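Recall the central idea of this unit: under ordinary conditions, the amino acid sequence of a chain determines the structure it adopts. In this exercise we apply that idea directly, starting from the sequence alone.
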Amino acid sequence: MKIYIFIFFSLSLGAQKTNLAPSVPAIDHYFGTPIIDDYRNLENLKDSATVRWMKSQTDYTNSLINKIPNRDYYIKKRLEFDKRQGYSVSDLEITDNDKYFYLKKGSEERTAKVYYRNGFNGTEQLLYDPESFISSFKDSSSKSKHQFLVNLLSPSWDGSRLAVSLTEDGKEISQVIVIDVENKYVHPEVVTNTNPSSIGGIKWLQDNSGFFYVYYPIIDSNSKDYVKNVQTILYRIGENPKKLNNVFSRSNNPNLNIEENSYPAIMAFNADDKYYVGNLVDSEDFRKTFIISKEDLLNGKKTWKPLYTKEDKIPYMRLAGEDIYFLSGYNNTLNYKLCKTSAKNPNFKNPQILVPEMPDEVITGYALTKDGIYYTRTKNGVEAKLYLYKDGKEQNIKTPFVSGNIYLEAKGKDFSDIWISCSGWANDEQRFKYDLKKSEFTPENIAPLIEYPEFKDIVVEEITVKSHDGVEVPLSLIYNKNIKKNGEIPILMNGYGAYAESYSPYFSISYLLWANQGGIVAVPHVRGGGEKGEQWHIDGQKSKKSNSWKDLIACTEYLINKNYTSPKKVAILGGSAGGILMGRAMTERPDLFGAVIIESGVLNTLRNEFGGVGKSAAQEYGNLNNSADFKGLLEMDAYHHIKKGVKYPATLITSGINDPRVSPWIPAKFVAKLLANNSSNNPILLKIDYAGGHGGDIPTAQRYANIGDIFAFALWQLGVSDYQPIGDITK
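Accordingly, the structure predicted from this sequence is:
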């Protein structure tokens, strides 16, 4: 057996094109249309032939990337910058009584640790080191083989306790511990089968004795019942976590008609709220929502009442006493208006309108304070402004610097405290506390701000490009001001375009390093995102999804026609739902790109619902049982658009073996078919991270290394001299 494996891997390293995946085709019939799936067999990740092939392709990819000169440039620079800064801080949480909890990672540390201080100027204390966490392994000696990271902090209302969520090897499914802050006592009970960083969070009881969390009955992402029939559990500190107190779910509340693929989650906004709000979370921003009195729920009563429906078009709400403040997209209000109604007698169709809709700016967030409502508006997803609604009037607040993105934090309705975090493509994020009486901002950064003189010549240009149908698509360009338009500039085009998520500007050292090596980072804000409101999202989903990749193609052609670059100098990069964008751009216009990199991409939409959490994505991509949606799903399926004999660009497809959202067999099938049909000599590579998941929740160095490999591959394929090996390393 060992000899066989050795020969198999040796062949794959020397002759990738002869190492094609085993093919066992299947035929599906949809509304009279037969669809042949050449690699249905690869969906069985327990099949030994599939396992060997995926491993051999990953070994080949790693061997190839290891031979690229300057491959370690990115990770060296990132670690150098980390050392310059000393440490980084994230996941800051502030309680009403001014206790600060956050994650802090030193430049030499593998993972971030949990810290605490009483007030911004209080003495910092180490509260918890995730390296000390021992999961429920029967053999605790195996702990060293696994990496646990903190992916959520949730302090109780008074800050006396802290719930810490930990995830292992990028799996996202979490285990939660509780710490008594004053004496740093870690309770022995461990809450399992949850994912609070993505769904519902952790919502504490008013007396800080316990919390609500979302529980997954099945945590095997390969099971057909994965992420089905999840429950909201009420857990009280010190109880046995295995004795599940199910308070909000399909099984506990059959009269609410909760679908098996929804995530019933409870929201609590203030300690003294009179109500709990139950939200049925799915892939849409608009959700079916219920309300119940606190007293009833805690006494075991099931008196949930409907609050609003998907048709009411409410992406976000907050309680404040008997009042509900919410954003509304009802009655074709595509850029949203800020409204108010009563919890006792709610009216979401004809509410009190506080801030009306604007035609060219989208309301992107708001925060309630004692002094009024602070809110943000964004134009084209890249130009953010701050406002205050007070005493029936709106006023614009000038921020410390022009920002592409503004994030708000506030203690709540009974406090004046408000913080903003401002960032941009070329501006590192800075956090400020705003004093309304003085009309001034005071910096309140917990991590040190450092200078990057290396990037002093980086500039940002925001333009619009006409797409195939004449629609203007925003395009962000990040580059060194000294570059010349000579048709040879390496372009890294990164986009997403799904779930109404805006690709908002943020300070990305990755982008700036690319720009400093003579390239341009281009971010097309394609349809399917939320940059220009809800209609922008609608026009890039389901049967209209083709607008997404046609927008990207138009932006690429613009840069070529304006003599910035040429097709062989363009690399496109996307992940997850952005895999549809990049996969279909590549299969529709293979002549337009020099390199394609897709991370954990949704590349086989006809089969997506059978891998990871794919079934819950039907609202975004379409339902296989609907004939019109089927046509859209087939059109956006990059796997089924691979054609025999086409010269495809160099391609790097990555995935994590523990990915719970997009099963690794989806990227594997795409590579298998591409290898069998591609007629060019360009490398087609598959790289599986056997210690990772969907891309997040992995150690910093591992993340840097993964991005470094992506950059090295792109720069090699785009012909950048510092990344060119001697000879053909693919043979």
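The CA atoms of residues 33 and 631 lie 10 Å apart.
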